[in-house]
Amino acid sequence: MKLLGNKADVAPRQRIARRQLSTDFLEHAREWRRIFAETWGTFLLVVVAAGGEVVASRSGGAVTPGMRAVAPGLMVMTIIYFMGAVSGAHLNPAVTLAFAVRQNFPWSRVPGYVLGQVVGGVLAALFLRVMFGTVAALGATVPGSGIGNGKALAMEVLLTTGLVSTILGTASGARNIGTNGAIAVGGYIALAGLWAAPITGASMNPARSFAPDLVRGDFGTTWIYLVGPAIGALIGVIFEWILKGRPTAAARLRRKVRETAMIRRTREGGGEMNIHQATKSYENWMRSCMPVVETHLRLKHKQMRKSLFLFFRGTFYRWAQLWPELCANLCDAPKVLAVGDLHVGSFGTWRDTEGRLSWGVDDFDESYPLPYTNDLVRLAASVKIVIDSKKLTIGFKEGCSAILEGYQKALKVGGCPFVLAEHEKTLERLGVEAFEAPDGFWEKLDHLPVVNHGLPRDAERVLRKTLPTPNLNYKVVRRQAGMGSLGQQRFVAIASWEGGHIAREAKAILPSARVWLDGHIGRRQSCYEKAIQSAVRSHDPFQKIMGTWLIRRLSPESNPIEIDDLPEERDEEKLLYAMGSEAANVHLGSKRQVANILRDLRRRKSNWLRSAARACY
User: Fold this and answer.
1) What is the dihedral of CA 384, 385, 390, 395, to 10 degrees?
2) What is the mean pLDDT of residues 337-360?
3) pTM of the entire structure?
4) Beta bridge partners of 502
5) Which of 200, 217, 247 is the C-terminal boundary of a domain?
6) Of 5, 224, 333, 410, which residue is least crowded by CB atoms under 10 Å?
């Protein structure tokens, strides 16, 4: 399963190093490193390009015109190899401009890159002057003998157009990297120099031409080498659009999502996180948000080793990391207030205000604004896991179709709550005849360890407030339950009232793992109650947020329903259809997105959900 780790866990060292370097180009905190790389790379390029003329003059022609033409191309090739993954090896304001216009490179980073390139060029020119004096005009580029300014400008436009076309055709995003890019770009620069150097010097680079002119104080023809490459860069981008089309908004978003996912996956230690590093990071973040029950965390780790489904349920934080990259083509879907951690074990029953038995999603711990596709793909992926473990017999294709059909139909009709207590036939909507209450529910609850000390005051206050009478005698026990929420404190107040047992649970709430990805410390989970209140459902009057605690009534009929607890006689297609319908009931809380979701569903291929779930499996 891809969520167990990632390719870096088992890949060769070269792939790990390559991905680690690629994050240098994306991480905002490392912009200084990229600018330094551009400064150093441009310094080397200008030393070779301008220095060829200078050394040829000082050595009496030992450096031939052919050598002078080829040397800059070889240097660019070398620079791409050793630092292309860090800064993209632009080395040229015209190239940076082209990447920005093509929307591969943010405009906010253009000034820093251009400044680094100019500084690198000027330092190179100063180095040549100190070493050799003002010889051969410090290798300045000027129009050749008999070449007018207009012809020189046209030639620089032409040469730069070819250079930019070559770069855009071989670059990865806004980076010159890899063997193909290095050979193509270096080869073009050498070829252009071999035939065009006598005409204009074959600059194609404002930083390379401006630097010697600044140091020697002669700007007579500098404008040619500023304007020409800029125009050539724009024409090169236009030609790229003609050849390949302009990037769509969806494509730009998918690229941004992939880049953001890579940054988030490498936030710790500068390398790509594996599952162990991600778990450590997430649990440390948990501890920064709230007191954690360490014994429950250890139990969670033990449970996760038992089965793939338990691992899946216990690692939504890992899903949140990897899903945007694995399913980048789904991340431009309309956003809703989603369940987040939706799977076949996310459903349960409760009693509504009128005492009717209701069914639906009963876990909103990870609720967060997400593309609607997140919930559907995660639900389908859980179906695949359960099918493979022989706990469902339905075919995966049929299961995905049932989820989608239920989801779409519920959206079109405005949703419908699942109220099951009217008469037994209502249960047919779920494909089961009856739900059996868990055995020994009250006995098991009553035998949990009593909390004699260490009960937080705010938890005690909210528990007391939810009991039916102010002076009711009760005891508080510590409870462990769920899978993803193991480690969060749970306290249960148990009392006898009017002839029977009652229980109220207070569970410490934790912000969604999506907040962890952004590196924030959260004290409130604002999405939980909003998701419940906005969903189409018959509400549980006891389920509410009070301070930093989730309060709900516990009873044999107010409980999650596990796949293992379902009757053997069941219609699994109806059950998955109902789960898809309930996902729509939740998403209908984002009413303004309904039309957009239906439109988005119509444009997707019929097998999109099945393919996406397999990609995450």
Assistant:
1) 0
2) 93
3) 0.62
4) 495
5) 247
6) 5
